[in-house]
Amino acid sequence: MAQERFCILFPPLVLVLLVLGCVQPSLAKESQAEKFLRQHMDPDTSTVTPDYCKQMMKRRNMTVGYCKPKNTFIHEPLPDVQVVCFEGTVRCEKGKLNCHKSTSKMRITYCHLKKGSKYPNCDYETQQLQKSIVVACECRQYETVHFDGFV
Ligand code: U3P
């Protein structure tokens, strides 16, 4: 009897555990480092069109619930950005001391919300620049967690 019960209950139990195993990682909260990648990294774009920011801010989920007022995308390979964590330490905008300024200028696109643009119609100005970037790094070295600005 007990063995019969086990045989009936075991396969669905295994199925539930498998489904949970697949679903749970995707529900896990986004880390600061993952957020940095989503919001600021775009190494593969070579041509930036005037509607780049409008499209990218939407595609990267920065127009959900409100229009993020400003955001910078970096068009350089990830290792070149991560290595900035080993370059000159500078004070961050909000006073913390874990910011680093890149020694080399990088290709970036600065997106800022157009005057008068209101949620949910988030419309952005697209500005291509070549600047040193300032990023914050945390936990393990090489882990960029925040884009602080450019100079
Ligand atoms: N920000 C940029 N580029 C800039 C300046 C600021 O992307 O040149 P967060 O999601 O709050 O970390 O400073 C406020 C927000 O604007 C920050 O985003 C910062 O990354 C972004």
Structure description:
The protein has 151 residues and is α+β, with helices and mostly antiparallel strands. It has one domain: P-30 Protein. The chain contains four helices and seven strands. It is globular, with a radius of gyration of 21 Å. The termini are far apart. Residues 9-25 have low confidence and may be disordered. The site of 3'-uridinemonophosphate has 8 residues, from β1 and β7.
Provide key terms for this protein.
151 residues; alpha+beta; P-30 Protein; 4-stranded antiparallel β-sheet; 3-stranded antiparallel β-sheet; 4 helices; 7 strands; globular; binds 3'-uridinemonophosphate
Can you give me a brief rundown of this structure?
The chain is an alpha+beta fold.
Given helix and strand content, the structural type is alpha+beta
Summed up, the domain count is 1
Whole-Å distance between the termini? 74 Å
Helix content: 25-40%
CATH architecture: Roll
Order of helices and strands: HHHEHEEEEEE
Instruction: Specify Rg, calculated over alpha carbons.
Output: 21 Å
Please report the number of helical segments.
4
Largest sheet: 4 strands, antiparallel
Query: Which small-molecule species are bound to the chains here?
Result: 3'-uridinemonophosphate
CATH superfamily: Ribonuclease A-like domain
What is the averaged pLDDT score? 87
CATH class: Alpha Beta
The main sheet orders its strands as 2-3-6-7
Oligomer: single chain
Into which percentage range does the β-strand content fall? Answer: 25-35%
Shape: globular
CATH domain topology: P-30 Protein
Outline the low-pLDDT stretches: 9-25
- Number of distinct beta strands: 7
